[in-house]
Amino acid sequence: MRGLGLEGFDPDSRPDAAAAFHVQVVEDEQRIPRHHHRKGQLILALRGAIVCEVDNAMLMVPPQYAVWIPGQLPHSNRATPGAQLCFLFIEPGALSLPDYCCTLKISPLVRELILTLAAKHPGEPVLPATARLIAVLFDELPRQPQEQLQLPVSPHPKIRLMSETMAEEPAAWQTLAQWAQRFAMSERNLARLVVKETGLSFRRWRHQLQLIVALQLLISGQSVQQAAQALGYDSTTAFITMFKKGLGQTPARYIASLAMTSR
C-alpha cells in the first residue's frame, strides 16, 4: 500500500477496531491491482470517483458515497486522477456490516467522523475520546443506505470481456446482436447467458454499465452532451432520460448535488 497515504503503515498488523487514512490519488497511482485485507475496508470518495471490482460486481463510488469491502474479499480499485479518498479499516467482528461488497450513501455525520479519525496519526494509542468517536461511528455506519451503483458481472470469460470492452468503448459495443456475432452464438443463447450470470436482461445490464460510465465521465468534467456522445446516444434527451431513470435526477442536478456536498 505504499504511495497511498498510509506511509508504510499496515492496518492489518494492528488490532485497532478502526483506523482511517486520507488518500490523495496521483497520476501513476490510479489503479490498485487485485488484493485483499484481513480487515474490512470502507473507501469513501471525497472528490473524484473510484470503481471497485470484485468477482461478481463492478461498483461505482462517486463523491460522498463509499464502497464497503468485507475482510478477505479479493478486489481491485481504479480511481479518477486527482481523486481524494478516505480508507477506513475495520477489525473483523467489530460491527455488523454486510458480508458482501456494496455501495453506501454516506451521511454528513459519518463523513465527518471518518475525517476526524483520519486526522489522527496512525499507530498512536487509542485515547478515550477516540474510542468514543469510534463507538459513534460504529453506531451510525450500519444505518447508511445501500445504493444500486453496481454492475453485476461474473468470472465467465464472455461476461468479463463484454463488461470490460463496453466500459472502454461504450459507443462501439451496444447491441446484443454485435456480441452474438462476436461470440458466434445466437442472440437467444447469449441473452440467456447474460441473465444466468448477472441476474439482469442484456438491456438492463447495459443500461447499468452506461450509468456507471456516465458518472465517471461527468465527474471527470465532461459535459452532458459529451457524455451522451461518448456513450453512443444520438439524442442528449435520451441520455438524460436513461440517467434520471437510474439515479432519480438529471445529470446536471445530480452532479450539482455532489459538488454541494463535497464542499
From TrEMBL:
CDD domains: cupin_NimR-like_N. Pfam families: HTH_18 (PF12833). SUPFAM superfamilies: Homeodomain-like, RmlC-like cupins. Signal peptide: none annotated. The lineage of its organism: Bacteria, Pseudomonadati, Pseudomonadota, Gammaproteobacteria, Enterobacterales. Residues 156-257 form the HTH araC/xylS-type domain. This is Helix-turn-helix transcriptional regulator. PROSITE patterns: HTH_ARAC_FAMILY_1, HTH_ARAC_FAMILY_2. Keywords: DNA-binding, Transcription, Transcription regulation.
